[in-house]
Amino acid sequence: MDMFLQRIEELRRQLNEHNHNYYVLNQPTISDQEFDHMMRELQDLERDYPQYADPLSPTQRVGSDINKAFVQVRHERPMMSLANSYSIEEVQDFLRRAKEGLGGEPCEIVGEMKYDGTSISVTYENGRLVRAVTRGDGVQGDDVTANVITIRSVPLQLPEGLDFPIRFEVRGEILLPWKSFEAINKERAFNEEPLFANPRNAAAGTLKLQNSAEVARRGLDAYFYFLLGDNLPFATHGESLDALKRWGFKTGEHTILQSIDDVEGFIAHWDAARRNLPVATDGLVFKINSLRQQLNLGATAKSPRWAIAYKFAPERECTRLQFVSFEVGRTGVITPVANLDPVLLSGTVVKRASLHNQDIIRSLDIHDGDMVYVEKGGEIIPKIVGVDVKQRLPQSQPVTFVSVCPACGTTLQRVEGEAAWVCPNKWTCPPQITGRIEHFVARHAMNIDGIGEEVAIALHDHGLVNDVADLYSLTEEQLVALDRFQQRSAQRILRGIADSRQVPFARVIFALSIPFVGETTAKVLARNVHDIDTLMAMPAEQLASIPEIGPKIAQSIVDYFAAESNRRIVERLRQAGLQMSLSEEELASRGDALAGKKIVISGVFQHHSREEYKAMIEQNGGKNVSSISKATNYVLAGDNMGPAKLEKAQKLGVPIINEDEFLALLS
Ligand code: AMP
Ligand code: ZN
């Protein structure tokens, strides 16, 4: 065999093993650097010897940003759901029925976690992953193999010499661990994108992304709980779970239970212990252990008769309100936050809960020192759902809303028509400044890594960064002297700052934190106004005459640039080398060919990616919309356009154009 191929195969085998040690066993045996080093060697070899490429190579875990529409696949065996129960009595009933069905035979039970994610079926042939399909409607689902390959704990190639059958299917749950979930929502909050309500929605949404590189970034995990196949050599479910574990799959917690007392003990244990798991669970699952007994019991139309889910009551705790703090956001809006005696809820310690606004505080009639009920039904931000009035302290007073800014002392103003109070001291109120720094560096803005909330506050507290323009005079010595940075992370921040000079004009506008100017508005402004000097000089009426810019946004832009301090910041950003106008390229490629047109993109394309088509539409004055309505002007259709979309477009008489026709429209 070619010595390069030999080395490639050796590296793949070792990297797979280290992935398993790290992501499944949580026991890495080599350092991250050693791992990266091997990965780089493999990447280099695969680049130099493309004839040895393998879609299941460990290098492919990073995914790709080429869009692929999902193909519908029929399940070999339907994916059923589980019957639910909510009390030990219902579980007892289930066991009684099972025993009856088995003619009174004794039976063993396996107790497992019910993972709260999205279910997946993965097929292996000769130890290689060949396909991963979502549950869909149970009969057929989406082929999401490209996305599942990016999940580090899912084996791509099983080690040789193990006792796995030639062909088998595993089923499990794809989850977004709490840590990844919280990180993603934090980032989404920065980017003013809607937050995911809970890890289940986030996992399902992530798995359906048509960009596997983004999926890889999000940090999904997978736990497996079923093995299926023809003539499998196992007598019990427990044995097949042990086999899955042996072959390198991450399996959940499971215990063999002999009696209803064992079941009760298992529930009592996990009701508390599940809070320490790294992933969300919404209950337990009990399964009859013997596969022969399972076969005898069979299934109803919806669910097997040999398994039952036990759902936990939604988590709610009662704890003491210590005090209400009032926090100032980037735009000056004041958010009341309940600071609580710490309680454990859904695996995380909760110390704070949002009280949203003055109206909510009033309707809860919350008093200082009250015992309050906190709920966290998988949602990221816990909420206060009520007060235990019986435990109210005799002299306690209702919580009052502050009248001056807690950060800078300025008298608050109530936003007309809204429940919010704001601090009007936009330009020198510290949390508004640090909030703007965080916004400025966010991924969809200037994309500077390594500056989160704490760093932004530290930079401001040390007098290093008073406004975003100060970022551009930071030095490595200053950052290292802050003593929270290693040299390496300081350099990473500086590299990000340097690179941000190339960030296009539209994102610079977005990064400035002009009230009401989000990502989309910033793009519209860049396209229509071309450069910052014109923008700064534009009167409100003229701004408002730009399509999609209303009078409220127009006035906000004028107010922003009327402030001397803001004009100075813009000037200094210009000196620092930021893009203050559309580039030659953007100007050349920009046109009005699609002015005001609403266009839906559907299917897979040959010449450009979906993202590129989206950008082209916007650069030419059009708007990319997601669903077809009477107001849609065109559907830009590639291969495999969804049948529902096709039908709708035809019904509404919306013209369908292909790639070539679209490109012709632009030229
Ligand atoms: P439901 O969707 O509420 O009917 O519950 C059934 C779903 O629970 C299954 O489709 C699986 O996605 C999920 N599930 C989570 N953990 C397990 C487990 N240990 N065994 C079986 N199903 C599970
Ligand atoms: Zn203030």
Architecture blueprint of SSEs:
Layout: H1 3-24, H2 32-48, E1 72-74, E2 83-85, H3 88-101, E3 109-115, E4 118-125, E5 128-134, E6 140-142, H4 145-148, E7 167-175, H5 178-190, H6 199-207, H7 212-218, E8 221-228, H8 237-246, E9 254-257, H9 260-273, E10 281-288, H10 291-297, E11 307-311, E12 316-328, E13 334-345, E14 348-354, H11 358-364, E15 371-375, E16 383-387, E17 413-414, E18 421-422, H12 430-441, H13 453-461, H14 476-481, H15 487-499, H16 505-511, H17 519-529, H18 532-537, H19 540-544, H20 551-562, H21 564-575, H22 584-589, E19 598-602, H23 610-619, E20 623-625, E21 634-637, H24 643-652, E22 656-657, H25 659-666
Parallel strand pairs: 2-11, 19-20, 19-21, 21-22
Antiparallel strand pairs: 1-6, 3-9, 3-10, 4-5, 4-7, 7-8, 10-11, 12-13, 12-15, 13-14, 15-16, 17-18
Helix pairs in contact: 1-2, 12-13, 16-17
Residues 328, 405, 407-408, 410, 423, 425, 429 line the site of zinc ion (ZN).
CATH homologous superfamily annotation of the largest domain:
DNA ligase/mRNA capping enzyme
Gross geometry: globular
Percent strand equals 15-25%
CATH class call of the largest domain: Alpha Beta
What kind of sheet is the major sheet? 5 strands, mixed
For the biggest β-sheet, the strand order reads: 2-11-10-3-9
Query: CATH fold name of the largest domain, please?
Result: D-amino Acid Aminotransferase, Chain A, domain 1
Radius of gyration, in angstroms, nearest whole number: 29 Å
The separation of the N and C termini measures: 52 Å
Instruction: Quote the average pLDDT.
Output: 89
| Helical segment count | 25
- Helix vs. strand class: alpha+beta
Note poorly predicted spans.
none
Number of domains: 6
Q: What is the level-2 CATH architecture name of the largest domain?
A: 2-Layer Sandwich
Helix proportion = 25-40%
Ions, cofactors, ligands: which are bound? adenosine monophosphate, zinc ion
**How many beta-strand elements?**
22
